[in-house]
Amino acid sequence: MRSKLSFLILFFSALLQQAVAQDKVSVKFGSVSEKDFATKIYSIDSNANAVVIADVGSSQIEGNSKGGFSLAYKHYKRVHILNKNGYDIADVSIPLYSNGVDEEKLEKLRAITYNLEGGKVVETKLDVKNNVFKDKINKNLIVNKFTLPNVKEGSIIEFEYSITSDYLTNLQPWEFQGAYPRLWSEYNLSLPVFLGYVTLTQGYQQYDIKTTKSANQSFNILDTRGAGASERYNFTAEVSDGRWVMKNVPALKEESFTSTIDNHISKIEFQLSELRPPAFNYKRVMGSWDQVADELMKSEYFGLQVTKDNGWLKDIISPITKPTDSKTDKARKIFAYVRDNFTCTNRDRRTMDQTLKNLVKTKNGNVAEINLLLTAMLKYVDVTADPVILSTRSNGVTHSVYPLLNQYNYVVCKADIDDKTIYLDASEPNIGFDHLPLRCYNGHARVVNKEAQAIELSSNSITETKTTTIFLINDEKGNLTGSLQQTPGYYESLRLRDRIKEKGNEELQKEIKKAFGSEIVISNFAIDSLNKYDHELGIHYDFDIKDEKEDIIYLNPMFGEGYKENPFKSAERFYPVEMPFAMDETLNLQLEVPQGYTVDELPKSMIVKLNEEEDGMFEYRISQSGQNISLRSRIRFKRAYFLPEEYEILREFFNLIVKKQAEQIVFKKK
């Protein structure tokens, strides 16, 4: 009986130890042995170039010697580099905030590379003093960079450091996911009751551990800033300890039709919202959108430049507009003037770096400056106009509820004319009136005025329509000769305008010849509306096919206009498909059977719907009547955004399109 009892005690003790081990990360800095190099392929991802063994961070609030509080952040990371394609993970960047005078402090940095040589673990330490470099990005951002030394295939690297920050608004976020798989990713946060933060989470991975517990903690504050003796404060407050752990997190890689992968990484962020007793008198730090918009309009670096008396604009506007012009005509002329006479030097700015007067003098400015000038000029001629702040697609989505200005990186102009609302961006050289670049269609944006109106700039609201018509007949010598007329969609027209202005028509013709699928000679090439920025282009040309007349001719009736590969290559996808626009592409072909040939094989017609709602549709209708073949190929998507659970059907839909559009007509010599 006693031996059975002893066995049960040992058994449950082992289970308890195993449970505890699963609850805590099993590695620590400096403890690397030969067995850590044994795994060459990890089950989480057999194709991984590197695997993050452990990534652990923690933040807590401490009293400082400046009469206040500091954020203390620690970060530890260990990585197993499996091959040379994973070397980039050994390049480490640590961003630090600066207010222009003081900056956050990087401390206790150490980093080691481990290699297995002759059965022994060999360490190579980073020379922190000589091999950590500072890169000043702007007045508020300094990045410390280093590369771990002696990295080879099979190396294990690890580093750790601390950051001390006096800026309570800069509580460190945490990314549980990234470009490489992570076996263990953990973040710990100790928050006292006297600081209130809004917690923002995103991603599609579930937490393996998520706990919160509370306890009392003593805070010691030393104030040495006064002229007399320093003062010491001591008090106790309740502290909430939060812990978040994700295990075996797969890599998140950017795939086609992704605005930015940052929108989908599993992460947690914090924004300071309140200061509370006992450390502070109550203060609401995060204001409402009304308050934030009011502050922006009164800011010298934003709205004040627009709302103050700008009588000097008269000298600029008078030569551009006439008193008899309608408001729409005035707006069009002012927009064209700003667009065509000012060069945008930075498309990643929410505020001004110079005055509007200086902008007019230099003719160079960032996107905020150019579109705030446009807004001021429209207001001067009594057009109702306001600036709009937004986040571009590559910058990431914004949280509409919280006025977090650091999420916004772009400014456009909203104008209301004759009961119609239009949006303008004069920083884009070839864009038309009442059009925005695709980068702006990223969901929630805010009008900066008294109402602080929320607007939605959705890619679902744009439909790119493209039409191609091809005629092919036999000439007097029995050769196929044809003509093509094409109207690209507005945004393809915008892209082509930029390309043509940069490289000329010749490069475009080379691309057409390469894509055509047959050897052709192009003549009478012309492009309409090249300088009419409000309109789509019109492309038309004649062509002769110069292929040799074999006994059997294989001809693809799409003539380079079809999809040649599926843009969705991954077998599965964990985040949405974000196309830049809805689309409607149609190709119409009239083809005369080559002289001296008969049709041996003709593709079959088909119509396929993506789903019951017909959010997508593919039509391929082909028929023969005597010596004439007709084809109509059409792809239509009613929306641009598709959820992860729709990915598989979307991928199969494109597989079908690619396969069908690759089919050829087979002609056999009589």
Biggest beta sheet summary? 8 strands, mixed
Using the alpha-carbon principal axes, give the shape: globular
Structural class: alpha+beta
Count every beta strand, where a strand is a DSSP E run of 2 or more residues.
35
Share of β-strand residues: 35-45%
- In total, the number of domains comes to 3
CATH architecture call of the largest domain: Sandwich
Low-confidence stretches: 7-20
How many helices? 11
Q: What does the radius of gyration come to?
A: 32 Å
Strand order of the largest sheet: 5-4-8-2-1-10-13-12
Estimate the mean pLDDT confidence.
93
Question: What do you see in this structure?
Answer:
By secondary structure, this protein is of the alpha+beta class. The protein folds into 3 domains: 42-284, Immunoglobulin-like (Sandwich); 289-457, C8orf32 fold (Roll), CATH 3.10.620.30; 463-669, Sandwich (Jelly Rolls), CATH 2.60.120.1130. The chain is built from 11 helices and 35 strands. The strands form 8 sheets. Strands 5-4-8-2-1-10-13-12 form an 8-stranded mixed sheet, with no helix packed on it. Strands 25-26-24-23-29-33-32-31 form an 8-stranded mixed sheet. Strands 20-19-18-21-22 form a 5-stranded antiparallel sheet, with helices on one face. A hairpin with a 2-residue loop joins strand 32 (616-625) and strand 33. Helix 6 packs antiparallel against helix 8 (367-380) and helix 9 crosses helix 10 (505-516). The longest helix has 22 residues, at 2-23. The radius of gyration is 32 Å and the shape is globular. The N and C termini lie far apart (98 Å). Residues 7-20 have low confidence and may be disordered.
